[in-house]
């Protein structure tokens, strides 16, 4: 039986996620003057067209590339030893402590609470037409699945093959892929909720939405 209280207590005990910003390619680093404890903002605007706070610039072959903050948070570390030096791709530059949003907490709880059916290979995934139609008309929780049910189509290198669901019986609660999107092997495709757990999960989602305070 799912212990929702235990899951919530675990998240409340550590309501942060560390984000390590790494060099996207080789280049010379020039930090933007931020220090430990400074607040940074993530992308903004209606279409997220406004970049987040500038963390550093990386110059390669006279081409300067800004590195903005991907999320809101507090600077935990700046690797100033790299200032003015060339770094390799993947080198850690800045660490941000990001306070979890209400949506992120719900997602964390759901990933623990649901049965996650994962991608067997890197490919594009689609629901079979009858399931796709039902999802569009009646919503996610209208689709029940059982072991061996053909629910998805795998599209890779111009070939399409059906994919049967394997796992416990339940209803589709979450969908983790978008149409035409490449999903890596091992990434979740759908989250399945046993019918007898639906009320419990809906209650905890409602509780998080009403109780979780987001940082300004």
TrEMBL record:
<dbReference type="InterPro" id="IPR011053">
    <property type="entry name" value="Single_hybrid_motif"/>
</dbReference>
<protein>
    <recommendedName>
        <fullName>Biotin attachment protein</fullName>
    </recommendedName>
</protein>
């Amino acid at each position: 039986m799912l212990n929702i209280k235990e899951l919530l207590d675990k998240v409340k005990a550590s309501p942060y996620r560390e984000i390590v910003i790494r060099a996207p390619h080789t280049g010379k680093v020039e930090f933007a003057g931020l220090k430990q404890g400074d607040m940074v903002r993530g992308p903004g605007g209606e279409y997220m067209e406004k970049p987040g706070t500038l963390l550093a610039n990386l110059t390669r072959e006279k081409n300067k590339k800004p590195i903005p903050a991907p999320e809101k948070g507090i600077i935990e570390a700046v690797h100033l030893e790299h200032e003015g030096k060339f770094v390799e791709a993947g080198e850690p530059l800045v660490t941000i402590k990001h306070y979890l949003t209400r949506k992120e907490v719900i997602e964390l709880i759901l990933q623990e609470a649901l049965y996650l059916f994962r991608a067997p290979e890197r490919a594009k995934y689609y629901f079979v037409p009858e399931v796709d139609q039902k999802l569009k008309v009646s919503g996610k929780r209208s689709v029940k699945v059982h072991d061996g049910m053909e629910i998805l189509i795998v599209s890779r290198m111009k070939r399409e093959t059906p994919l049967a669901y394997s796992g416990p019986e339940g209803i589709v609660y979450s969908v983790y892929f978008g149409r035409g999107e490449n999903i890596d092997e091992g990434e979740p495709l759908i989250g399945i909720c046993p019918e007898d757990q639906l009320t419990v999960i809906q209650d905890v989602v409602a509780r998080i939405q009403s109780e979780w305070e987001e940082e300004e």
